[in-house]
Amino acid sequence: MDWVIRDNYTTLSNGSQPEAINSFYFYQTEQLSLLSFLLAAIVLGNVSVLLALLLSKRRKSRMNFFIMHLAFADLSVGIISVSTDIIWRITVAWKAGNVMCKSVRFMQAMVTYSSTYVLVALSLDRLDAITRPMNFSRGWSRARVLVASAWILSAIFSSPILVLYEEKLIQGSLQCWIELGSELKWQLYMCLVALSLFIVPAFIIAGCYTIIVYTIWKKSAHLAPNHQAMPLKDGDKHEEIGDLRRASSRGIIPKAKIKTVKMTFVIVFVFIICWSPYIIFDLLQVFGHVPRTQTNIAVATFIQSLAPLNSAANPVIYCLFSTRACTTLGKLPPFSWICCCFVSRGPETSSIIDTVTSTLRRATMRTQDNL
């Protein structure tokens, strides 16, 4: 995530000894190990989600449409952003020229913004699905507009990178660098990045889920007296299905829709947890609350490496909430090979796996009943 901020702005605050601290010092082995793990997790996880959605019989749902774009954006973060950060930490110097400097930084910024704004679009769509459950006709057109807007806004907010970044000779080596000229400009730049990348999206998402929770609570309060839990006979199942259909026609929220809201809420919660340390630390750093030492420079670079963690977490959340996706992936290599390795270890291991599988199945059924 070096396109947002690196320690180059701090050279302005210590003009008397600009060369005293190496701005490119970091714990190379530890950071390369972390970034390599993140790259593998992001690529494997999001490719798995895309495969599961493409092979799913329900891939035409609006929720899957948003999840597919979110997985594509997260995969792009891994391929474009994390991989180039790994290359930079190996070479330290920039060796691709000025045009690639601007292009790579622009693409890094765009895929990062897109991952955030697709999540905002997903939250807005869930809000529309809960507050206006009968609005089927405009659902798909609205979904396409939201996703297209997310990618367009990402490109617009990333466009200043094409002007700000350029190849420069810094401390004896060529770097893809941004130089704003004063601490005030750096503070303004970082505040705008924090607002557009984290704070404003977080407030929009929080507003969406405040309304969603209130709507569900309000409709559940109206529904509670007439829908008390009662044991059903086999002959009453068709009658219950008919009641559910009539309830849906009256605008009552189905369990499946509430489940998608819960999954999106967890994705948003993880988004805030993953991005908060990164944004807070960079704001503290740019406003001079973090002393400029060699160790703090390494720590800053390390914290910047954690920003893509959100792109690695989203596929895990999706698989936890979608048992169909996990079942579909279990039939494909290399996931089927892993299952075969466990099963081929003998009858004792197989019985343990069967026990765990049945337990997880019963737990999943109970969870779905509670959703």
From TrEMBL:
GO terms for molecular function: neuropeptide receptor activity; vasopressin receptor activity. SUPFAM superfamilies: Family A G protein-coupled receptor-like. It is found in: Cell membrane. The chain crosses the membrane at residues 34-55, 67-94, 106-124, 145-166, 186-217, 265-287. Keywords: Cell membrane, G-protein coupled receptor, Glycoprotein, Membrane, Receptor, Transducer, Transmembrane, Transmembrane helix. Gene3D superfamilies: Rhodopsin 7-helix transmembrane proteins. It holds the Pfam family 7tm_1. GO terms for cellular component: plasma membrane. Residues 45-318 form the G-protein coupled receptors family 1 profile domain. InterPro entries: GPCR_Rhodpsn, GPCR_Rhodpsn_7TM, Neuropeptide-GPCR, Vasoprsn_rcpt. Belongs to the G-protein coupled receptor 1 family. Vasopressin/oxytocin receptor subfamily. PANTHER family: CARDIOACCELERATORY PEPTIDE RECEPTOR-RELATED (PTHR24224:SF6). This is G-protein coupled receptors family 1 profile domain-containing protein. It comes from Nezara viridula (Southern green stink bug).
